[in-house]
Amino acid sequence: MTSPLTNPAAPVSAVRWTPRLWGTLLVLCAAMFLDALDVSMVGVALPSIGSDLDLSTSTLQWIVSGYILGYGGLLLLGGRTADLLGRRQVFLVALGVFALASLLGGLVDSGPLLIASRFVKGLSAAFTAPAGLSIITTTFAEGPLRNRALSIYTTCAATGFSMGLVLSGLLTEASWRLTMLLPAPIALIALLAGWKLLPRSEREKDHNGYDIPGAVLGTASMLLLVFTVVQAPHAGWASARTLLSFLAVAVLLTVFVLVERRSPGPLIRLGVLRSGSQIRAQLGAVAFFGSYVGFQFLTTLYMQSLLGWSALHTALAFLPAGALVAVSSTKVGSIVDRFGTQRLIAAGFALMVLGYALFLRVDLDPVYAAVVLPSMLLIGAACALVFPSLNIQATNGVEDHEQGMVSGLLNTSVQVGGAIFLAVVTAVVTAHAPEHATAQNVLDSYRPGFLVVTGVAVAGLLITLTGLRTRRPARSVVVAKSTSLEADRVPVRD
């Protein structure tokens, strides 16, 4: 489908980004910014929330996990819903729900209601994220235009995450409720702007009905998987409850695959996963976000619990990584055009591995400029290269009517990867917790967790390297299109 706002046949240099086109992108960036902002802000505010509402540590954990559960569990359904019901409609409705849940979250006076509002926010983000990404990929023509748009879009996620850390440190000093309320007016402004600016999208007219069994099975399996992984460190990885939950997930996923293979209008068309580049993008997303979430979790504990840094001091320590991503936003698209996604992802993972490895040098009296800052800069450079490249690689070559599905699949990989490896890192650190806690013993118990984080990044690098088979990036030429399988493409060396 030709974008109503661009002309793919025109030379890139001849295509001018109109104010409306910029406005469309900014609305979508605002939603992605809010998702990342909300995730990072709540972590710093948890101690204040627990004190004010008299919540236990296990209850506080569900303020974070409730969001992850709603987000990670419903992304597949959110992506396909955007394809079937219209991307603009789904995006705006979900953004409105996000704004309302943000408002309620800042006003409630009980833990269960706060957790419920967080779950609803995660649920709404599970619809805005794939809908927003698919609006970009169907509005901007594949190639340099889309690459530039996606690099700006994904940069907003890193910027939101970094700003969330700093803002939460400032706002929590006044009241934790401000951290919950802040996204509401931003979401409302984005909603009003989106109502005017977002291109109207038609519902998929030639679909073969709604895959209700697939939607139920896919959503149930993702919800149970995220729930099981989040609870495993507390229930025990080898406990009967955890093992039975994983078995149930395996059964649900098996039935889901069988249903999708027979469904005339599947929630996920399994033929998409026959592409090696698509599989590498999905696995790369799991390793990328899984390693970073684990690193951020351990580093925050290290800085606040062991070094005694304040929440704001800790946020500022992470800031160089986010600032580097923000500054590079206008450059990544052109770098992708020149070198291709696979090489950039490999280079990014290599920088990430090096950054994590250097952080293993930390001690109880680190010199920030010599020990912490180099790791932050390397990790920031890695995020700037990897995240936009993964989005570009996952969505390239996919038909417009399946962009929501692929976007939901990619975001699911990101969230599930984060949930799984955060739980693994937590379990490893807990297993090495010393009986007699001294500062040095606690730091030593963190090191196996940092090693796991580094190992996950190494795995991501190795997966990416399997796609580097030619010395120069290959471009794809569509030679035939099939009604049941993805377009056949022939790699052509430049």
TrEMBL record:
Where does it primarily localize? membrane
Localization recorded for this chain is: Cell membrane
| UniProt xrefs under PROSITE patterns | MFS (PS50850), SUGAR_TRANSPORT_1 (PS00216)
Give the signal peptide as a residue range, or say none if absent. none
What is the recorded membrane topology of this protein?
Multi-pass membrane protein
**Ranges where the Major facilitator superfamily (MFS) profile domain occurs:** 24-472
User: Which InterPro entries does the record associate with it?
Assistant: MFS, MFS_dom, MFS_trans_sf, Sugar_transporter_CS
Any idea which UniProt keywords this protein has? Antibiotic resistance, Cell membrane, Membrane, Transmembrane, Transmembrane helix, Transport
Among its keywords, does the record have Transport?
Answer: yes
Annotated Pfam families: MFS_1 (PF07690)
> Transmembrane region positions?
21-47, 59-78, 90-108, 120-140, 152-172, 178-198, 210-230, 242-260, 281-303, 309-332, 344-362, 368-387, 408-429, 449-468
Quote the protein name from its UniProt record. MFS transporter
Q: Which organism is it from?
A: Streptomyces gilvifuscus
